[in-house]
Amino acid sequence: MQLVQTRANSMGKNQTILPDLSALIPVMPEAGKRSRALYTAIRRLIETGQLPAGAKLPTTRDLARRLSLSRGAAVEAYEVLVAEGFAEARVGAGTFVAAKVPRLSPDMPKTAGDEPHYSGPPHPCTLGIAMADERTRQLFRQLLHRRLERPQPNFYDYGDPRGERELRQAIADYAKVARGVRCHPGHIIVTSGIRHGLDLVMRAILRPGDAVWLEDPCYLSAHATVAGLGLAIVPVPVDREGIDVAAGEAVGGKAAAVYCTPSHQFPLGVTMTMRRRLALIDWAKRNGAWIFEDDYDSEFRFSGPPLASIQGMDDAGRVIYLGSFSKVLFPGLRVGYAILPEPLVEPVLAQRRQMDRQPPSLPQGAIADLLNEGHFAAHLRRVRKRAEACRNALVEGLRGKASAPEQGLHLIAGLADDSDDEALAAAALKLGIGASPLSTHCLAAPKRRGLILGYSGFEPQELHRAGRSLAEIMR
């Protein structure tokens, strides 16, 4: 931290900007010798390097005023600092930090977050990378600028905890047409993404110890959210038809909720059949349970008609529908949404007010413009076409080790049950390939083996090369 700066004044001379020690020194004690407390605080700033050698200290008059001390206490503290060699007084210039003083480590301990980590471009096949689109980026910049140039009145006020009405209406219109969702803008709450929506709603309607079904294998972020809320996790196997409702009833039929990804199960990529969807709705009705429907990767369907949501088939109001703009636009937006049954709106709003009050209004307005002016649909057509080309390049490079999925932004390269997919993923990483082992997403034995490979956000050529390298190490 540079505490002393210089700048040129109107006469062209350098002017010293003194540090405001009141922002660094702890509040002076009400009792005890205040000059000693001030001396100790300044000495600590010098020893830890927060006041560098040669830094000019404020005048005793100024420091006393800032810290509500007597000037005599400030003078006494400076005298002790000078006597012990931590500072030096220069006649006619002031008091400065000495050139040579002992150096100690700062009070703040080093944390795991301080460790060096890879910060370069993501490795090919890494999961969770959005498909960049330069036209959309430029357009979004223009829409943000337009919103800043002509801000709405609520831009300067705290808004609706559900989110801006304009965006909620646009989401309702889009979800009805694209996903068959039945909703009203009043049922929608704008969130910071799927995980935030899941956490927010579960906090509002579930209690620690409640049982929750999770698909097995599962989306690890959802698992972390459910576990972090103190809920009891019930692993339910996934087969070719999606989550096995009968198996779930056999091991935990009285669960309070289920989290599922029916359109494109993560990580296996299967689509839940109509038979299973109806069975899941029936189970929720009979048990008074809630279905959290994460519509994962639903926008990226490469063949066949769009799939209907479970929420649109539910006539009992048991489904919470979760969507996000992260993958389809860019994760940096941190904008998603939860579509709630009517009875849950007020409990969730009460929880929202306690957590973060409201979502940011600026990106909401720009996203509403994207949806309402037709830009979002055009963006989807472009990125869907590129994602399909990327998928094909990766599958071709894998040389028969994986088949092309009809939907989504990742695929599974299956392995034999006795394979070590974690070791293979580590070997791939050494080659600069970001494969994820399937076994780490499994909750119960026996664990499935395979490599989860993302193809969004990379060029087809580099995916083809990565696929060829993976085929070699898998062999």
Written overview of the protein:
Pfam families: Aminotran_1_2, GntR. In the C-terminal section; belongs to the class-I pyridoxal-phosphate-dependent aminotransferase family. One of its GO terms (molecular function) is DNA binding. The protein is built from 14 helices and 15 strands. Strand 9, helix 9 (274-287) and strand 10 form a beta-alpha-beta unit. It is of the alpha/beta class and 475 residues long. Mean pLDDT is 87; it is low at 1-16. The radius of gyration is 29 Å and the shape is globular. The chain has three domains: 34-97, Winged helix-like DNA-binding domain superfamily/Winged helix DNA-binding domain (Arc Repressor Mutant, subunit A, Orthogonal Bundle); 152-373, Aspartate Aminotransferase, domain 2 (3-Layer(aba) Sandwich); 381-474, Aspartate Aminotransferase, domain 1 (Alpha-Beta Complex), CATH 3.90.1150. The strands form four sheets. An eight-stranded mixed β-sheet has the order 5-12-11-10-9-6-7-8, with helices on both faces. It has helices at residues 34-47, 60-67, 71-83, 134-149, 165-179, 194-205, 220-228, 245-252, 274-287, 345-355, 361-372, 375-398, 421-430, 460-474, and strands spanning 5-8, 14-17, 87-90, 94-97, 188-191, 211-216, 232-239, 242-243, 257-260, 290-294, 319-324, 336-339, 410-414, 436-437, 450-454.
